[in-house]
Design a protein that fits this description.
Layout (H helix, E strand, L loop, with lengths): L7 E4 L2 H4 L10 E5 L12 E3 L7 H8 L5 H12 L1 H13 L4 E5 L2 H19 L1 E2 L8 E2 L4 H10 L5 H7 L11 H8 L8 H13 L17
Parallel strand pairs: 1-4, 2-3, 2-4
Antiparallel strand pairs: 5-6
Length: about 220
Amino acid sequence: MLFNNHTMTMVTDLSLVQQNDINNRDFVCIAAVTTSNDCLNHPSIYNAGILVPPVEILDRWANGDPYAIQNQYTEYLCNNKDADDMIIALLAALTTKNIILYIPQEEYDIFGIQLINHIYFMYGITMNTPTTVFSFDESKLPLLLSKFYMMDLMEPMDYINSYSPFYKLPLWVIDKLANDLKPFNRAASFEEYNEYFNGLVAKNNPNNTKIQILSRVSK
């Protein structure tokens, strides 16, 4: 299993992330999604503030726009590379340790549910909350591995060997694979590269795809 029995949990109580028994970087990564400085100076808490809605979206919400969070914040999470990279980095860390995502209650009430829903619908992660238990939708694995690879969290052949033969590689990884592996000693078209790399994937044994994430994600 990709996450090796680790889980991702959403909490809104700061005291829960300051307990000594979970402040161990070898086993837990705590990320704060907040504009507050109450916890960001804590040595064991990472700043994930990029996942907070931008000021202009919060202003629209405060001025009564009922769709500011539902639509514009979701669009921000989908289209802002830094926000998406933060989510991918947290999910990569989840392969080696438990993740706690902390959002203060007052901020959670504004955008917390939307963030939970985005991570679920985009990457298949159901977080531990008071009403849900952690799970992963395996159909999202090809997308997640592709994002890991694009962030250089997987070696190119580890990525190819981990990929299910039941799925085609996304087109947006082909150029990077071509640059990383250079399989031809001649100029080749995008279509040739696409066919070649998907041919490698098609040879994978669906029951024996070992996923190898680079060790630096655990640091």
